[in-house]
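Internal tracking record. Fields below are filled automatically when a chain is submitted to the structure queue. Please do not edit lines marked as system-generated. If the sequence contains nonstandard residues, flag them in the REMARKS field before resubmitting.
Queue: standard
Priority: normal
Entity type: single polypeptide chain
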Amino acid sequence: MAQEQSSSSTTTTVPDLNSPPFSRLFVLCGKQVTVGALEKFFSPYGTVEQCHIVYDQSTGQSKGIGFVKFQKTSQAARALKEADGKHIEPELKPIKVEIASSTIESKPLDCLRLKVKCAAELDADAVKAEFGKISAVNSVQLVPDKKSPGNNVAYLTFESFLDAALAFETAKPEHKAKFAKIKPRKVSLESVQPQEARSFFRPVTRRRSSTLLPPTKLTVLCSSTLTQNQIWRLFDIIPGLMNCSISHDGGSISSATVTYNNTQSAKYAREKLHKFEYPIGERIVVRDGSE
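SYSTEM-GENERATED OUTPUT FOLLOWS
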């Protein structure tokens, strides 16, 4: 298990990492960044409940990876918006900030959508106007509330994570606001024309320029509880990710293949993420695809 050094500024107990939702950030920083420097850097964005740096067990050296847990979702959202791309002294390289994955499976766009309860007499425009006083609302979808006949449930999609977070925190108690997962659109195979069938089943990959170096593959051994989406999000922190696929054989360990468009990114990913705890308490193993 990788060693961690942590700091808590408000409590001596470990905070619930999933409460409130999306309040914990993953920070890809330099190896010279300490826990104190990490906390000092992120404190202006809100109340930091906990931060820690991940250390390699065998060398005792920082892996250049940190986590920051905020008291409020909006504080994490503001930090994500404003801190990404800056640098933490004494490192000069820009940091990469993402929402940290947790034990609750979520997708990148889930932080943009809220589910709220509302009175039946309110139409979509009225709901949008109410929440639009604080946040930028892109769309509102109303559906009957099955648990409370006569009322509706509204699904609101926001312009940004920060907009959604502010709406979540300022919503009236009767709205019972919560973040809602975005379900993938179902496609009927009957609607796919014969000439489209081949491309429909083709794996989705990122296009790359012919001027780039040949793709470089990594093999990732990880917990069978992880999904392809979670592995993608982890390795996409490092620029150059082209494709990711995972196979489950029914055991406790799964194998994933991660492809980058250049050898430098693949090498950096292996260095940074090999033996990284994901999920907490379990380490992933990252190898060159040829090994």
